[in-house]
Each structure stands twice: as structure tokens, then as C-alpha cells.
Amino acid sequence: MPPKTTDATATALAKIAEWKDPYRDIGERIHRVILDTVPELAPKMYYGAPGYAIGGKPPVLIFFRLDDDTFSLGLTEKAHHEVEEGSAHQLMQAAWVLTGIDDTTEARIAEIVRRAVRRPGNSSASNRAYRP
Question: What are phi and psi of 85, to 5 degrees?
């Protein structure tokens, strides 16, 4: 049985549908990756862009947007942030610009999504593997 479509899902998909290709395809694929990776996430519009929150209730943790011809994926300040293991610096990545999407990029986005929702004691979402 297909997942129930909510008004928020319909609004997010309508926003993505407004974009020209290749951005529409990128948006549709990222939307699917986010929901497949952590099914507890649900769409919630975030400053006019598709955002995703646990149960669709604030706070939004992840979003993506198209500004002119720049497509970006970002984490809000409410997402889990951590310095990557083995890093020699203290910077924590919170945004990425995409020029396209492929299976490798989808896998990396799934990893970003799992990290973004990670909380102490929240092993279910953080340990789920994304499989396209």
C-alpha cells in the first residue's frame, strides 16, 4: 500500500514540480531518499522550500532549495551536527550544493539524513541503511 499523501507532502511535491529539469529530478530523488532513509521524517515547508521534520512537526531538520540555478541541501540549526571522525579541524558541514544526482550522491545524502536526525539513544534512524 503506498504511503498516505498529506497536504504537506502535496505542497512539497508541488513546489518541486515547479522547477525545471534537471532540478525537478534532483528534488524528486532527494525527497524520496529522505523519506526512504528515515520514514519518521515528513515534509514541512521551510521558508518556501521543502523541509523535513520528525512527524512533520517543528523543528525542520533538513531542507533543500533552488535559488536561480543553484540547488542546495542544508541542515537547520536544530539538526544534529558533529565534526567528521578523523577531522583535523572543528568545522561541521551544514550545506551542500548539487550540480546533479546519481546513486553515489543519493547514498551520501542518505548518510547526511541519518546523521541529521541522530540523537543520543536514537539508534533506529541513525543505523538504517539506504538502498536505492
Answer: -55, 135
Nearest to 28 by CA among 117, 108, 97, 101: 101
Q: What is the pLDDT of residues 13-72, one digit of tens each?
A: 999 999 999 999 999 999 999 999 999 999 999 999 999 999 999 999 999 999 999 999
Instruction: Check: CB of residue 26 under 8 Å from CB of residue 16.
Output: no
Q: What is the dihedral of CA 83, 49, 53, 85, to 10 degrees?
A: -10
Query: Which strand (E) or helix (H) includes residue 105?
Result: helix 103-116
Number of neighbours of residue 43 by Cβ within 10 angstroms? 25
Q: How far apart are CA 41 and CA 113, in angstroms?
A: 10
List, in sequence order, every beta strand (DSSP E) within the chain: 41-46, 49-54, 62-67, 70-75, 95-98
How many whole angstroms separate alpha carbon 55 and alpha carbon 40?
Answer: 6
